[in-house]
Structures are given as structure tokens and as C-alpha cells.
């Protein structure tokens, strides 16, 4: 992070308006999308004013603490977008993320935010707005934002850097089904593409899940994936190929697997393994029970592409681990190992074998 001037303020500075400076320049450019707040003891009036300032702030606010926040300022840490605490702190709540070097990690988040500021701010806004909504309404909010970013300069830049890619070839059986009395097993079956969540696999998966929603004799649904990974996220060859942004919104919200997995949550178990990217954890997080193999890692790379999670991840993942850790995972783009996922509640068990 050499050469980065990290915008920082104290709790008192936050209370006095450090986050309130205009966030847009004359030409609409984003000015300092992220502000680091150094957390320290403060009187009750200052904490109250700082908490209000955090709630109404346009910027992403990242708290940095030497230890776990004590009760006097837990309210402020919940109003921030995430707080980084030293590794030696007691097991933190969902608004906190342990860090070997909180300041260095805050600088990494700032670098990611300045690289894609519009996607960063949109992510924070969507996570805040979706928190009190029901799942269907929150999915609509996510999709409206995602479609907006599809038309933005940051995604266009990523598409240009990626270059042209051929569409994936047709698959004979993108999903396998097996029925055993009340159990329906669904297996993602594009191992040659690491079960990327492309159109054919999505349509086959949603068809299988719809079967379970209308057949009461199916008492249990188990979803897994063939090959080296459960799901490597959206198929990059299909990014940017939807006819228009309005159609893209309708496809995501009315033809996606997320709402169906949510409807089946009490009956659904997802067994994940390998590198689970984007949709590879966004969709499983809707299920009532998620089991990870010990080698599993989880990653949300969308912000670096100028986007936000778009397969339901701003809805399903915060309902498991909180909006704060969701923002950290998506903005940092870091891989989360199975043990951390279990500690956070992203998965419910870590078991060997599939």
C-alpha cells in the first residue's frame, strides 16, 4: 500500500463532520469513497453524534480498533460499514472482522474502493437498504443496482480488459437429477467449466428446484457439484451479453435460482467444495443447511469488475454473516477458508467427503 494517503479521522472528527464533505466532484467523479475511523474512548454525546453521522454518511466507513469494541461504542461500530479489530480480540460480533494488521487491511479496502468507487458505494448502499427488507424486495434492490452498474464505466473497463470470449458450448446435461423416495439430489454437471453459473446451468437448476417446490413428496433437496469445484461463479463468457439492462433485471429476479432456494430453505442442503466464487456461495447461502468440504474457499470478486454480487449475494450472505462481513468479503475480494466460514456462519458444518 505504499504511496496511498489513507483518509482517516477520529470518533470526534466523525462527530464533527469528517464524513460529510461532498463525495462528488464537478464532473461527477467520486472523492474519497472510503473513510477510516480510528475508534477510541469518547463521551456519550460524542458517540451519539458520531453514530448519527455514520448512519447518514455517503462514504463507506471502516472502523479500526486495537481490540474488541467495548459496550460504550458497539452502537457506533454497528453504524459503520465494517470494523477491523486486532486478532487477539475476543470472538467478535458480525460487525467486526479480525485482522493481523487492521490499518494495513483498511488501506487495502481503500485501494479497492478507489479502483472501483461507484461499485463500492453501490454495494454499501444496497447492503444498508436491503437489511430491513424481506428477501424478495431485497433481491429487487440488488438487481436494480446491478443493472445500473452493468451500464457503468467501471464494468465497461473490465469488459475491455477481459477481451472478447466465445460463448460456452452447449451442454448435454448441465444438471443431473436423482430421486430416492423423498430425497431429490441435484448435481451441477459442467465440471469442464467448474460448474460456472451460465444460462444453461441456471435454467436447468431452476427447473429442478421448481419441481421440488410443487412436489410435496420431496421432503429433502441436496444440491452439490461435479468436478473440482461446486461452482466457480457466473460464466465470464456470458457477461455483458444480455439484450438490454431491463431484461437482465427480469432474468436475475424472475428466472434465477436464489428465490427458489430461499423458498425451499427448510428442505434444502447444499454441499460445497473447492473454489466457490460469486454465485458459488451466493446461492448456497439461501439454503437452510450448507456443508463445506475442508478444502473449500469462498470469494466475491464482483466489485473489482465494477459490479456487486448479482445472484442474490447481497441478500443471502448478510442474512448469515451480517452486512458488515459481507462488505469486507466483497470489497477485499479475499478468499475465505472453510474454518472462517464456519466461525462466521456462512456455512453450518465442515465435513470431509462428498
Explained architecture:
This protein has 354 residues and is of the alpha/beta class. The chain has 2 domains: 8-115, no CATH class; 135-350, Alpha-Beta Complex (2-enoyl-CoA Hydratase, Chain A, domain 1). Helix content is 40%, strand content 17%. It has helices at residues 11-15, 44-56, 74-79, 102-115, 117-130, 135-150, 153-162, 199-214, 245-254, 258-263, 279-282, 313-316, 318-332, 338-344, and strands at 8-10, 34-38, 60-65, 82-86, 96-99, 175-180, 183-188, 220-225, 268-272, 275-277, 289-292, 297-299, 336-337, 349-350. A 6-stranded mixed beta sheet has the order 6-7-8-9-11-14, with helices on one face. It has a 5-stranded parallel beta sheet with strand order 1-2-3-4-5. α3 (74-79) links the parallel β3 (60-65) and β4 (82-86). 48% of the residues are buried.
Describe, in short, the structure shown.
With 354 residues, the protein is an alpha/beta fold. Helices cover 40% and strands 17% of the residues.
In percent, how much strand structure appears in the residues? 15-25%
Percent helix: 25-40%
The rounded distance between the terminal residues' Cα atoms is: 40 Å
One letter per element, helices H and strands E, the order comes to EHEHEHEEHHHHEEHEHHEEHEEHHEHE
CATH topological fold name of the largest domain: 2-enoyl-CoA Hydratase, Chain A, domain 1
Family: Belongs to the enoyl-CoA hydratase/isomerase family.
Protein name: Enoyl-CoA hydratase
GO molecular function: catalytic activity
InterPro entries: ClpP/crotonase-like_dom_sf, Enoyl-CoA_hydra/iso
